[in-house]
What we know:
The chain is α+β, with helices and mostly antiparallel strands. It has helices spanning 4-22, 28-41, 87-99; strands at 46-56, 59-70, 74-79, 103-108, 118-122.
Amino acid sequence: MEDINDVTRLIIGAAIEVHRVLGPGLREQTYVEALAIEFTDRDLTFERQVSVPVQYKDHWVGEYRLDFLVQEKVVVEVKSVDRYDPVFEAQVLAYLRASGRRVGLLINFNTALVRQGIKRLIL
């Protein structure tokens, strides 16, 4: 399962299952917990709340917290918001740059169909 497309497909499948069972409108943390269960059930390795340092002109100035890093390849950011904001995409792109990863998924569970709330971002 080294192909990144296979990994993102499994992640999206997990998100669809979580949304099918729980539906929209819950707190973000609820979806994070449910996704962790689905990732485990699908034999996906993952880390939660991964700390990624932020550098500015060779100085460490802060850190990002990734919701998930899946298979050491895909950054997953979970949202549960009524209003989509382009800054969410910028956030994931910043996470990708800081972590050295190329692919990220932004998943907003507060939609009628979760597929409408999934955005794949590539650096």
